Amino acid sequence: MNQDNGILFTAKKIGNATIKNRFIRSATFENAASQDGSIGEEYIKIYERLSKGQVGLIITGMVYTSGEGKSYHRQAGLHSDEAIAGFAAMNDMVHQNGSKIFAQLCHGGRQSMALGWRPPAPSVGMIDLTYRIFPRSMNNREILSAIKTFASAAKRAQKAGFDGIQIHAAHGYLISEFLSPYFNRRSDEWGGSTEKRFNFLKRVYEAMREAVGSTYPITAKINIEDHTPKAGLTIKESVEHIKGLVDLGIDAIEISCGTLSFSMFNQSRGNVPVAALAKVMIRPLQPFARLFLKTVYPEKKFVFYEDYNLWACDDVKPLLNDTPLMLVGGLRSYESMEKIVREQKADFVSMCRPFIRQPMIVKNWSNGDIKQLTCNNCNNCFGFVPLDESIRCNLNRSF
Length: 399
Ligand SMILES: Cc1cc2nc3c(=O)[nH]c(=O)nc-3n(C[C@H](O)[C@H](O)[C@H](O)COP(=O)(O)O)c2cc1C
Description:
By secondary structure, the protein is of the alpha/beta class. The protein is built from 13 helices and 12 strands. The protein starts with 11 loop residues before the first strand and ends in a 33-residue tail after the last helix. Bound molecules: flavin mononucleotide.
């Protein structure tokens, strides 16, 4: 496990960005911005640690592209030009520490705690108990306007010195909703067939590409399985969307799974932090909240096992030609990650929770220190979101 001999410590390009090693910090919502979406010391510290820890490519947590696409109260935004300066200062620091950084751009769609009772979505849906909302269907004008916000936010990200963009097309947020036959019940140009469900993402990509020029890296995180109560996106349809993205010229694909509304713990797997999630209910309701959460997320329903999205690489990798593939989901052992890259199952290994707990692990590995990852998938890090506190590891209060 040494910088000189491990394939994980070789550089590889994503578009025109050279990533110094194969480790990616998968997008991780920080819950550390101000209510107006601006970022400060609390947010920047997270990126200082990760870049000092020699993560090759850091992908920010989901950043909203417009007020209508905001999901969480303390989410960062690239919704206005005023946001550029704060991110620019952060990105300079990250670059000085030798890492690359991409902004993950997202419109929350129906998954929003910040917009009140009726957030915009492709189709009217059932009342959603996770977000406590009743989604409403977007009209054509709103859809076109949402596409424009992605392009404007991408341009701002470029101005702020981000090395590239990741389009958040996974986990049940707006783009993922358009891709999913479960959430998207439309029969106009935005739904009704695989091709039409892809139309929104296609138009987002095209608008962004026009805004940032032909060489700026644009990547996407996309589900290979939605895990919704009735059939949502499955690998069969997902590969068609991925082929579509490759034809458009996407610079890398990250594969993931799950939708937060129905299977938050299928996206990440492991324990359901029932006590932490129940804390946001008013005190007299907390026992009922616990009961409810235990029913919605029966413990062990979402069993954690290592590399749980690896199975899909065999379906996806052959479609990509030279376009890099990033794999996320339960990567926990150095040996396994090395095998994944050596056997060309994926080009990059991407992690979220291990970096919340051990932001310096890549640096340790590069020095030959064979420390193992110690994240135990307790998922208490999720529990800070409804409390409006910044994400951290509950096992180690020093972060
Ligand atoms: C606290 C927390 C915040 C997350 N925020 C995001 C996010 O903003 N965008 C995203 O695409 N995925 C997000 N995820 C999902 C992770 O990026 C990743 O796909 C998932 O946790 C599986 O990877 P892991 O086993 O390495 O944690 C988040 C996960 C956690 C635990």
